[in-house]
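A reminder from the course coordinator: this example appears on the midterm review sheet, so study it carefully.

Given structure:
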């Protein structure tokens, strides 16, 4: 079970590294409208407009690009619907898209969150970041009992499929640790000595 959790977390953080550049350029230089700008009716209009513009049938590049934009818009709508369904009180929503992923960054009840979708708008994972006081009591008690000499500096709640893993950042005057908590088990993910 520990191997599965480590694989899930490693995969999530590897993908996060890939999407970091995307997030830094939110909704800039996108080859299609930002997700919130296109709804199903507008999508139908894009398709009608394409037909009316009398694209030369030989110009396959233009047609391929248009189909790609329509496909991306459909994925964006699916991602938007998922976010609105699962996080009804989300605020400050920002979107970014690359070839392989669509990313939503937002706030939810004083927590920061990131949802990553594949290029078809299917949910891949969610990372919610918050402080110790927002950590579920049972998880906080477990961590505090195991690491009495450390304080919790940050929590990342990672949801992928039916698995929820808490990546807890700990520190004291000499060391920093990142631990994973899942199903009552604690695994050290990374550990560092602080420089003096």
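Designed residues:
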């Amino acid at each position: 079970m520990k191997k599965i959790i480590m694989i899930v977390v490693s995969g999530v953080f590897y993908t996060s590294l890939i999407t970091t550049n995307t997030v830094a350029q939110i909704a800039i230089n996108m080859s299609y409208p930002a997700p919130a700008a296109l709804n199903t009716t507008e999508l139908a209009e894009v398709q009608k407009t394409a037909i009316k513009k009398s694209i030369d049938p030989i110009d396959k590049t233009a047609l391929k690009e248009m189909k790609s934009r329509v496909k991306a818009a459909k994925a964006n709508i699916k991602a938007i619907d998922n976010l609105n369904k699962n996080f009804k009180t989300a605020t400050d929503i920002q979107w970014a898209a690359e070839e392989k992923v669509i990313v939503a960054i937002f706030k939810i009840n004083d927590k920061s969150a990131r949802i990553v979708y594949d290029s078809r708008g299917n949910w891949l994972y969610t990372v919610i970041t918050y402080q110790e006081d927002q950590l579920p009591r049972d998880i906080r008690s477990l961590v505090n009992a195991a690491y009495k000499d450390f304080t919790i500096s940050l929590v990342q709640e990672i949801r992928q499929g039916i698995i929820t893993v808490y990546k807890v950042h700990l520190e004291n005057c000499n060391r920093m640790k990142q631990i994973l908590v899942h199903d009552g088990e604690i695994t050290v993910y990374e550990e560092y000595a602080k420089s003096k």
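The first strand starts at residue 91 and ends at 97. The two ends are 37 Å apart (CA to CA).
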